[in-house]
């Protein structure tokens, strides 16, 4: 599974992740590049979805617990109010990397 990179874009991190919305979980991959956070579902899902958060548009990144007990949540909010919650391993590394990049911009 790959993503179409923009000019001068480099992949920094990639991990299997779940996107959760209204009790529905989509299985896919989460990428962090030097320009955005990108999610794409795997082919096993009934619904194909892709979306990205440009780093300069991210307002906040938080770490909720999944089902209130599993420390794997990563919640991203954009300046326009778009929100997404993911379940991903090593969320501390993800939040540190995302925040480090977005504060450089």
Can you walk through the features of this model?
By secondary structure, the protein is mainly β. It has one domain: PH-domain like (Roll). It is 13% helix and 46% strand. A 7-stranded antiparallel β-sheet has the order 4-3-2-1-7-6-5, covered by helices on one side.
Quick overview of this protein structure:
The protein is mostly beta strands and 105 residues long. It is built from 1 helix and 7 strands, in the order E-E-E-E-E-E-E-H.
CATH class: Mainly Beta
**Which parts are unreliable, with pLDDT below 50 for 5 consecutive residues or more?**
none
* Average pLDDT for all residues: 85
Number of domains: 1
CATH fold annotation: PH-domain like
Main-sheet strand order equals 4-3-2-1-7-6-5
The CATH architecture category equals Roll
Counting DSSP H or I runs of 4 or more residues, the number of helices is 1
- Rounded radius of gyration (Å): 13 Å
Structure summary, number of beta strands = 7
Classify the helix fraction into a percent range.
Answer: 10-25%
Name the CATH superfamily assignment: Pleckstrin-homology domain (PH domain)/Phosphotyrosine-binding domain (PTB)
């Amino acid at each position: 599974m790959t993503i179409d990179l923009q000019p001068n874009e480099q992949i920094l991190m990639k991990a299997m992740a779940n996107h959760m919305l209204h009790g529905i979980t989509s299985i896919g991959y989460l990428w962090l590049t030097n320009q955005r956070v990108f999610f794409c579902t795997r082919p096993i899902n009934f619904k194909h979805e892709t979306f990205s958060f440009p780093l300069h548009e991210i307002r906040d990144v938080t770490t909720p617990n999944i089902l209130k007990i599993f420390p794997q949540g990563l919640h991203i909010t954009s300046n326009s109010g778009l929100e997404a919650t993911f379940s991903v391993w090593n969320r501390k590394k993800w939040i540190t990397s995302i925040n480090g990049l977005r504060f450089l911009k």
